[in-house]
Inverse folding.
């Protein structure tokens, strides 16, 4: 079964609305040749930049996502954003459970699970982040940690729900550090994630879920990562903040 490549830029807390619009305007001509059937290109700006980016991306092959979502439909949740607020803007994807949210904002597998359920109910496509700390890897706990994140985060979802879910494997020690997991090391963990998905949802569903790699992915290493059998794309931080570097990465990734 062939899975379509998905390359998503996580802009994190970068780019004002004006800067985000300019980035998308610069990116559009650079990626216009990428067939929508070959790869999904996604950008995930901060909330306040989403509307400008949706407008700039209209009619192009660039899709837009958010970086978080709350599980309630509305109510007394100061500082949070609901599914309907996001769908009204016309976005398609939402990153959930990024390690920075787990590390700095108290995100747990239970809150990740609640956010994923709200997203799929609203027709959004969650990009669910999992990944181990350096000490987990050094202690031989990578699979235990990721297995727990998957089982807790995806609890109660159906195979049908999973058709819209993307998993992003982001080893925390590789994020923003310049230290990429080698393609072989990343592939071993991607394979473990796929086996876990097959155990949880059955072979056919598990085979269809796209699994992105994230962590210091750039134009130079994208091709060899995405060439691995279970690496279906990337979730990109730093290299997604400039049109040229993001476009070069996308082109190298799909040249596999
Ligand atoms: P970098 O590409 O900057 O390492 O960030 C990866 C990431 O956290 C994407 O979500």
């Amino acid at each position: 079964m062939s899975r379509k490549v998905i390359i998503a830029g996580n802009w994190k807390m970068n780019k004002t609305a004006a800067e985000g619009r300019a980035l998308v305007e610069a990116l559009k001509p650079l990626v216009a040749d990428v067939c929508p059937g070959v790869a999904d290109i996604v950008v995930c700006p901060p909330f306040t930049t989403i509307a400008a980016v949706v407008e700039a991306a209209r009619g192009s092959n660039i899709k837009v996502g958010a970086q978080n979502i709350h599980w309630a439909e509305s109510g007394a949740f100061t500082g949070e954003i609901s599914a309907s607020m996001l769908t009204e803007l016309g976005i398609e994807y939402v990153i959930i459970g990024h390690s920075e949210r787990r590390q700095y904002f108290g995100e747990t597998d239970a809150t990740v699970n609640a956010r994923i359920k709200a997203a799929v109910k609203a027709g959004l496509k969650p990009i669910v982040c999992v990944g181990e700390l350096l000490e987990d890897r050094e202690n031989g706990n990578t699979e235990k940690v990721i297995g727990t994140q998957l089982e807790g985060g995806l609890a109660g979802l159906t195979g049908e729900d999973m058709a819209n879910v993307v998993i992003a494997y982001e080893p925390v020690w590789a994020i923003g550090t310049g230290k990429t997991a080698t393609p072989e090391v990343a592939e071993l963990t991607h394979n473990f994630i796929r086996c876990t998905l097959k155990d949880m949802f059955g072979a056919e569903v598990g085979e269809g879920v796209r699994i992105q790699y994230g962590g210091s992915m750039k134009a130079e290493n994208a091709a060899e990562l995405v060439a691995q059998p279970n690496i279906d794309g990337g979730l990109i931080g730093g290299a997604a903040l400039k049109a040229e570097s993001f476009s070069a990465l996308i082109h190298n990734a799909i040249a596999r």
About this structure: The mean pLDDT is 97. Strands lie at 5-10, 39-44, 62-66, 93-96, 125-130, 166-169, 210-214, 233-236. The first helix runs from residue 17 to 31. The longest strand covers residues 5-10.
